[in-house]
Design goal:
alpha/beta, Rossmann fold, 15 strands, globular, about 20% strand, Spore Coat Polysaccharide Biosynthesis Protein SpsA, Chain A, 7-stranded mixed sheet, 4-stranded parallel sheet
Length: about 400
Amino acid sequence: MWVPAHVGIIRNEKVDKIAKKALKNCSNAKQVKHKAALILARGGSNGIPLKNIKMLAGVPLIVWVIRAARDSGVFDSVWVSTDHDEIERVAWAWGAKVHRRSPEVSKDSSSSLETIQEFSRIHPEVDVICNIQATSPCLHPWHLKKALEFITKEGCDSVFSVVRRHHFRWQEVKKDGQCTKALNLNPFHRPRRQDWPGELCENGSLYFATKELIEKGLLQGGKMKYYEMDPEYSVDIDVDIDWPIAEQRVLRYGYFGKDKPEVVRLQLCNVSGCSLTYISANGEEVVSINTREQAGIHMLKKEEVKVILIEKDTITKALADKLSETLGCPQEVEDKLKKVQELMEKEGMVLKDVLNILQFYAKQKYVCVCVCVFEFKYKHYILLLKKKAKSQMEQDRICRNTF
């Protein structure tokens, strides 16, 4: 546009400030080409055997962080570094790539840094590596997104997660007669919790570092920043006693995936899949079911799960009739898939509402839970699904001001 020489241009100071800030951010930002998430999961564990794939709230422990990393959408690749076949199988099944680590970095004495350096040498295309701790099941995608922005937008070389703790620390006494002393407080002026900001402690959930920093033998260095996580999301499972506590925390604060879990409302099952058949002395077949399996049905019904018995086998049909009468469960003999579709339409359900033994349920990418409703272990899992869904609903209503 042509402007006469005598016409002045009025500058907008507010616009200038915004422009300068944008230029500064651009100059600080790193041009990161490939960002990889790396989850270290060695097969050997001094505390819990194969801890990384032990079931926690219905899925293997490592799956919680694989799912968070994949759903964050900020990584070009998500890897699990392992030396164990079963962990490798789980990783592939849940959409992660596998770095089969060498024996040299699979020892009890091997450090995380050594394993990460090996991965970096094998994959030179990776510019930034995020080491995600497999034992942090309450990690969410938005934690990863926010932490990565310190590198991509502010030009940091390393970012790690911390949690704020309000613990008064005291010096350890190693000799008889030696007295202890306070390390982070004045006993004459003990602060109230609400008057003390606490201390920032690493929680181990995530460590971002550039390739250049890792090559120098560092995970933390250069231009560093921390990412503070709320205490409710800082869960680290080290010993077996942590497991039930962690499971309750995961049910409330864990990341369940992009699709919210739904409360299970319907259960279909074959009686023949859970009964035992005996041959009597006169050659007749006798069918029986353990009383604890009947108790499982009672517990499901108490939780408002509708149970329908399906049986075509002539011998087992008599048992199904008796169970239907005793437990108050309706009985159907038609094709299971057809019956599911009819019930879904009648009850206004979708597949996430329905728990059944058909393979099509798994093909819809929802967990195929049940082989048989009467199996005691599956009954607990079905109830766990309900607890997860209710916990997620409750989590949506949590007010941050209550913490």
